[in-house]
């Protein structure tokens, strides 16, 4: 994610009311589904969260989702969203009940065809009790029918669903799915998904991945758009952009489909958006050379409308960009940033949100590498500039990129000091090792999760060096680290060449 406006996003700290287990003594004695029930085990509720250290009630325990089929109907005139999500999952324990994360009004839930009871608990928990106990290893098909007005469904006054004049954007981090499909909403439970949305004919719907079929006319002058993601992704990577868009399709150098979409509301910012997003395939090609094979099945980008989001998000295979990024002209840096996340954040996701540096530090450093590649300032020059930009007594240095806290996962330090930390790692291990560490990391954790400790261990293994001092100093220690003048670049802060100083200023204006 790159923020364009200061108040764009607040990480929500939501607490769930204590979950009361409604024990049904007779339930455990009922025959299980599909195979005999072990005599000793008593089904228990799946936990209402996955124990994330920042957002403990995000996600749910007791099952693992393999696929979401999200079939929706949307009315831009009223923001009414209705539909059915079918979840294919596997039970990971004997379950008396389990939770989904969801906010809209639920009409019915069925589990393997059987009507289930359900209850709202806390802010975003939907507790589902099936009429029969669920056994560990059992395949689950959970069908949830629902409807609501996402823009009016508020949590602490906030909605992650952005209604705009001609449609809506379902784009947010770390909470997004709550407003449009029931899920196990934590990056630790990755799944594939199919998304289809029926809208009035003439409205476009863009989402992740590929289109398994052309938009299909439906009764009532409507059209159903279908999108498919075939590689596992985190729930917050799924997105919808609904409205008036010009769609540009092409083929990337690696043979993959490219789908770019531009809101027709962009006006004079439209050419700058196109001059940036149309370079996506070039950027992905360059990043593939640094980070390893591109992990997803399609590429592209969405330039959102002028009344839309104030940030950009690395939605899987197709980032979505707020209009502010084009206000000073083309901005390829943000395209570099969001597409770097396809490796760092999307394919390799945080195991716990406290590891957000693995996303933002790397995507920010990718911008420095791009600058270096383009001859617009080396990473060392950008390090020096950024280091000098924050006085030693700045609050900036008090946020630890390696453990920023739930309210600061998108703080400047995670991005800027995060990139500085990677540059210090590069200096410590040398370019040869550094540029082996990056693709090794994306290969070892492809379509999975990672922690900072795992990354440090990998970097130490490849470089053969003890890197504890680098990681401790740059990620886990408050205050501005001392940097020996000799270890820094030749450019002192006041003497930057104008070209990249201007570029960096543009970055900064956009990010803050
Ligand atoms: Zn980012």
From TrEMBL:
GO terms for molecular function: alanyl aminopeptidase activity; metallopeptidase activity; zinc ion binding. Keywords: Hydrolase, Metal-binding, Metalloprotease, Protease, Signal, Zinc. Its cofactor is Zn(2+). InterPro entries: Aminopeptidase_N-like_N (IPR045357), Aminopeptidase_N-like_N_sf (IPR042097), Peptidase_M1 (IPR001930), Peptidase_M1_aminopeptidases (IPR050344), Peptidase_M1_dom (IPR014782), Peptidase_M4/M1_CTD_sf (IPR027268). The keyword Protease applies. Gene3D superfamilies: Neutral Protease Domain 2, tricorn interacting facor f3 domain. It is an enzyme of class 3 (hydrolase). GO terms for biological process: proteolysis. Residues 330-474 form the Peptidase M1 membrane alanine aminopeptidase domain. Its EC number is 3.4.11.2. Residues 28-53 are annotated as: Disordered. Belongs to the peptidase M1 family. This is Aminopeptidase N. It comes from Micromonospora chaiyaphumensis.
């Amino acid at each position: 994610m790159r923020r364009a406006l200061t108040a764009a996003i607040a990480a929500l700290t939501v607490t769930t009311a204590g979950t009361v287990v409604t024990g049904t003594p007779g339930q455990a004695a009922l025959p299980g589904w599909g195979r005999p029930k072990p005599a000793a085990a008593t089904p228990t509720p799946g936990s209402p969260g996955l124990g994330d250290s920042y957002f403990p009630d995000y996600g749910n325990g007791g099952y693992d989702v393999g696929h979401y089929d999200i079939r929706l109907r949307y009315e831009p005139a009223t923001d009414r969203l209705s539909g059915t999500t079918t979840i294919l999952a596997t039970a990971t324990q004997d379950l008396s009940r389990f939770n989904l994360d969801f906010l809209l009004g639920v009409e019915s839930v069925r589990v393997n065809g059987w009507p289930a009871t359900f209850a709202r608990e806390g802010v975003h928990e939907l507790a589902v009790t099936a009429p029969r106990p669920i056994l560990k290893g059992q395949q689950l098909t959970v069908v949830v029918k629902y409807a609501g007005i996402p823009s009016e469904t508020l949590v602490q006054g906030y909605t992650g669903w952005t209604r705009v004049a001609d449609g809506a954007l379902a784009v947010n981090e770390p909470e997004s799915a709550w407003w449009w499909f029931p899920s196990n909403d934590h990056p630790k439970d990755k799944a594939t998904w199919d998304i289809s949305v029926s809208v009035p004919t003439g409205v476009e719907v863009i989402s992740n991945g590929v289109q398994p079929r052309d938009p299909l006319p439906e009764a009532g002058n409507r059209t159903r758009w279908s999108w498919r993601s075939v590689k596992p992704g985190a729930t917050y990577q799924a997105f919808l952009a609904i409205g008036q868009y010009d769609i540009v399709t092409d083929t990337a150098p690696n043979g993959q489909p490219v789908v770019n979409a531009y809101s027709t509301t962009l006006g004079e910012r439209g050419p700058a958006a196109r001059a940036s997003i149309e370079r996506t395939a070039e950027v992905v090609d360059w990043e593939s050379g640094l980070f390893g094979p591109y992990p997803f099945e399609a590429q592209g980008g969405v330039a959102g409308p002028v009344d839309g989001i104030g940030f950009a998000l690395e939605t899987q295979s197709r980032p979505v960009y707020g209009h502010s990024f084009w206000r000073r002209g083309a901005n390829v840096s943000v395209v570099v940033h969001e597409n770097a996340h396809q490796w760092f954040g999307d394919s390799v996701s945080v195991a716990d949100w406290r590891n957000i540096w693995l996303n933002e530090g790397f995507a920010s450093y990718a911008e420095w590498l791009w600058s270096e590649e383009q001859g617009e300032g080396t990473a060392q020059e950008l390090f020096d500039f950024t280091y000098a930009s924050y006085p030693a007594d700045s609050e900036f240095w008090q946020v630890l990129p390696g453990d920023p806290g739930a309210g600061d996962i998108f703080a400047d330090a995670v991005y800027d000091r995060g990139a500085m930390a990677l540059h210090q790692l590069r200096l410590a291990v040398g370019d040869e090792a550094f540029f082996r560490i990056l693709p090794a990391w994306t290969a070892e954790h492809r379509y999975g999760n990672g922690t900072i400790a795992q990354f440090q261990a990998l970097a130490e293994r490849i470089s053969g060096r003890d890197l504890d001092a680098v990681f401790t100093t740059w990620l886990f220690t408050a205050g501005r680290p001392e940097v020996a003048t000799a270890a820094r670049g030749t450019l002192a802060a006041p003497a930057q060449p104008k070209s990249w100083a201007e570029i960096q200023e543009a970055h900064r204006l956009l990010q803050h």
